[in-house]
Amino acid sequence: MSDAHKREAEKITLAHGSGGRMMQRLIREVFLEYFDSTELANLDDAAELIIDKSRLAFSTDTFVVKPIFFPGGDIGSLAVSGTVNDVLMKGGCPLYLSLAFVIEEGFPMQDLTRILESIRATAKRAEIDVVTGDTKVVGRGEADGIFINTTGVGVILPGVDVGGRNAKVGDAIIVSGDIGAHGIAVMAERNGLKLEGDIRSDAAPLNRAVLPLLERFGEAVHVMRDPTRGGVATALNEIAVSSAVGIVLEEAVIPVSEPVTAVCDILGLDPLCLPCEGRFLVFVDPAVADDVLSFLSDLEECSNASKIGEVKGSSSGEVQLNTVTGGKRLLDMPAGEMLPRIC
Amino acid sequence: MSDAHKREAEKITLAHGSGGRMMQRLIREVFLEYFDSTELANLDDAAELIIDKSRLAFSTDTFVVKPIFFPGGDIGSLAVSGTVNDVLMKGGCPLYLSLAFVIEEGFPMQDLTRILESIRATAKRAEIDVVTGDTKVVGRGEADGIFINTTGVGVILPGVDVGGRNAKVGDAIIVSGDIGAHGIAVMAERNGLKLEGDIRSDAAPLNRAVLPLLERFGEAVHVMRDPTRGGVATALNEIAVSSAVGIVLEEAVIPVSEPVTAVCDILGLDPLCLPCEGRFLVFVDPAVADDVLSFLSDLEECSNASKIGEVKGSSSGEVQLNTVTGGKRLLDMPAGEMLPRIC
Q: Which end of chain A is more exposed for a tag (fewer CB within 10 A), N or C?
């Protein structure tokens, strides 16, 4: 078959929503074909809008997590945190949020009010106002319980210019805390797994870490990204390609909690591919790396922050992992879908 | 059962998504309980945001229309028009749009590209830029094909202050064209009905009518509302309540095309409860009513514009219909769901 015929016969698969290679292809080869937008082509999690003289960060996400309630959070807290964090990752101070529901007929009102309470509490913590909304109801079997879209608007802090294209050779790469707990918590709840240790989702708004960080270190902060779908591996590969740089990671200093490590070992999962919903990666000028690390480590929610790698001179767009055992391997993003409906 | 117990046992029904009384109750008694926002409480289709010194209109909608392709449009053109029009109804010039998909596994790539092409064409016509997006894929049977959320941002024109609370006694009420075609076109396509006459959805962005109207008549324009879910009956009842006024409509001058009237007669549908996706209601100072009507009538897309009623002194929040046969009746909004998944 020719490429055109293959495309015609193609169907959407779960892998197209994975955050991995298949999703990258869908975005680059299908979506970007249709829209001539520099902002969209940047493939950051938020767009920068210029309105009058203001620079705004604008981000959208639909949440389809299954199950809707899980240890450490629920679809409501996740829907607020996810979009708030995407606005923050663009250097925006989150201000306004929209909220749009698709609800399946028969969904319990009690669950809806529990989710609304969670949205209220998380929005309060993130200091963002819910200002507009929409509710659609579809018939039984036409959706799976509830899906929530949130779209956020924030003002980008003066002097801040962060984005996936801005990684610079020499940058230190810092992760704000231990990775992978969100993915494991949701997966375990979905599959009824009893896990050793208390694994709770890390989902949380990152305001209290990100805004003071930007105020203090300003232009020395080059890239921020929350490693959600596809995890740290996907986020770093995307940044390496966008900035045309190479990245080297040190596996030994990547923070993963003991219970998450144990589950990953048993199930053969790579913590670097697991989604987080309350962690971020930050690329900073090496001159301030120690100060940034010490600043983050002093915050309760970032106490496990660690400098995990740096940007190298190569323009390969590749991520190299120096393993615990002294080896070197290329860290690719996952090809397909490891954990569907994780956010 | 006590009210609290009733609420606990309650489940979401299709009527909660109808745009009618049940949906009003859900919004007022459940959603507004959780969010202390003046903008949300206004219940306009867009919120007004103040950022620095700019006034922005911000609106979100998720589209779940079934079927996704119908005479005169598809879920893509609808998703752009719907949100663009909500931004316009708040007096905003639409600038930026986000696009978030929930797609069911197995959805044909060909249908996706057809929808993207339609989104591109409609966004171009509405002069709005798609700047950010999101794609989620759920398993087979976990959604019905494709759902699309769009969220739009626009700048409110200087001197313009429109909203559901601003209707003033004496205002003339003008509708921009014949009503109900969108509802009938989608319903007929869904049910495989062969209709007499060519009934196509009216779905279209309203920029070319609304922006010049606002520029020309400015503060004389008090309220704009596109009568989508629940139709003209719901829109006018909402405005009457929000502004604490009475409204009187003249049935004889409400424009309904012959084919739509014929279908409504056969099926027992009230055109005043049918959704439009390319029409708007505008409340203007009576001094400019004739000029507004003549201005609109000169535009191709508003050639059937008509002055259909006026605002009366009573603070009843009621809408009275003077019928063709010389009678008077209260026009209520529909109680439940006449046409599910119409947008």
A: N
